[in-house]
Design a protein that fits this description.
393 residues; 7-stranded mixed beta sheet; 12% strand
Length: 393
Amino acid sequence: MFNWIVVAGATLYAMALLLLRRGIRDALRDASKVSTESFPPAAVVVAARNEAKNIEACLRSLLNQDYPPDRLQILIVDDRSEDGTGEIVRQVAEGQHDLQVKLLRIDQVPAGFAPKKYALSRAIEHTSAEIVLTTDADCRPGPRWVASMVRLFDRQTGLAIGFSPLTAAKLHKWQELLYRLDSLALAAVAAGSLGLGYPLTCTGRNLAYRRSLFLELNGFGKYAGIPSGDDDLFLSRVREETSWKIRYAFAPDAHVPAEPVGTSRAFWNQRIRHASKALLYPVPMRLLLAGLYLFNAGFLGAMLSAGLSGNVLPLVLIWLLKSLPETALVCEGAKALQFRAAWWLVPLVSPVHALYVAIFGAAGQLAAFEWKGRTFSSAVTLGGANCSTGSSI
């Protein structure tokens, strides 16, 4: 009986993924209708803490943007770095008279603010540009990134979501395939849910929004003290509290490649951090995540039941109902984003995905995680002491 209940859940799961597949097409059609030719003042913001090994390459990629120099500002926020991150920024920025490069230094974080959100907020305070783009120090945006993202901002658009593929060139080939597939699957869900009118997720590695929207929402608002969520929690507020249009940037020029974390411990901490804010989303999304968790836990239970009873028919049905729509969704995402990934791996890793969801879904609510040299007990931990900021160039 249990197995057939899971089969019913798998049927609903399959229907949801097929809807997301249609949503990708709708989002792509909507994005293709918008192509503004203006170049409004834009600002790229990077919050950097102990990023000496990454910040130079990131900054040089930003200095190489194909965008009117007098309309682009780059703000690097040195968040209490102890490895010379700020000095590297100063050295790279010397002689860059055509672009406004500003370095902000944070020495303390005030109570009620998570470090990264405070860094982003301070940078946005220091610019008057209407369009704010965010990325991370370990990202390498291409020369047309800013222009491609800004192109989506017509009068109705308040926020644009971009794709950030994980490129693991320094890892084994199979690890690179899995990382590329994982980032594509997340992008497919982001674009598909947006096309259905209820955008679920995004990444701060590739995000753009109006400064006026940020001020309208009082910045990160009630989520200011949450360690993560400067991207999807902010997205949820835009979706729930405003009437601004949200669009997805499909063009390859808008992609922002990033290196995945390099160790299993860093991967563990990153995924717990991402999952830790699940209980903070609006009720509809919490119910959706709960259903997803229960289905994947049920799938694992069905595997165990089939192994004990020898009745594999329900398990085969569940696997097909889970893996085939997942493959269809990933393929649709790859086509829309013009991104190559090993879609054929999806049916093979589908059972592993169920285990992944079950482990990190639970661990995100129960386990502590490390991030940028600090330990957080959960996403509702509010951090910080009094804070001050420093110089600019």
